Sequence to fold (170 residues):
Amino acid sequence: MIFKKKFYLIIIFFLLVQNIVWSSEKIAFLDVEYIINKSKPALLIIKEIEKIRDQETKKLKSIENDLKKKDEEIVKTKNLISKEELNKKILSLRKEVKSFEELKKKIIKDLNIKKNKELDQFMKLINPIIQEYMKENSIDIIIDKKNIFMAKSKNDITNDILEIINTKIK
Fold:
């Protein structure tokens, strides 16, 4: 009797301790930054933003050069004009510098907003492609690569998605 109780306790113990997990879910990961940096449509967006940034930078440089010229002019005429006129010119220059700084901040902010908006639209555009890929390959979950500590490289679908995006989106 005692032997049977011990036997049953040992069997129950082994059954409870055994933690075998059977997962039927297929998980893959995707490097979204790589897709953004290497896909043709995203590269077009980034080039367009850089082109606009270069144009705005040229405008800002010309304004900055004008301000430097005005500053040099004030320094040159400092001894030739009265203090009142000098103070007026200095105040005027300070106002222009302040408006220049505000313009510079506004341009940077607008460019960042435009870039984020364009990339957000791109992500919305590729979302159905990724969902279709998930259905075709019976994938249950796709995780961004930056949130993974370690995984088998066979679960990386980045290059497959990149090829599909480059062929489907022009």
Notes: The chain has five helices and two strands. The helical segments are 2-17, 32-38, 40-77, 83-136, 158-168. The chain has a mean pLDDT of 87. The CA atoms of residues 9 and 15 lie 10 Å apart.
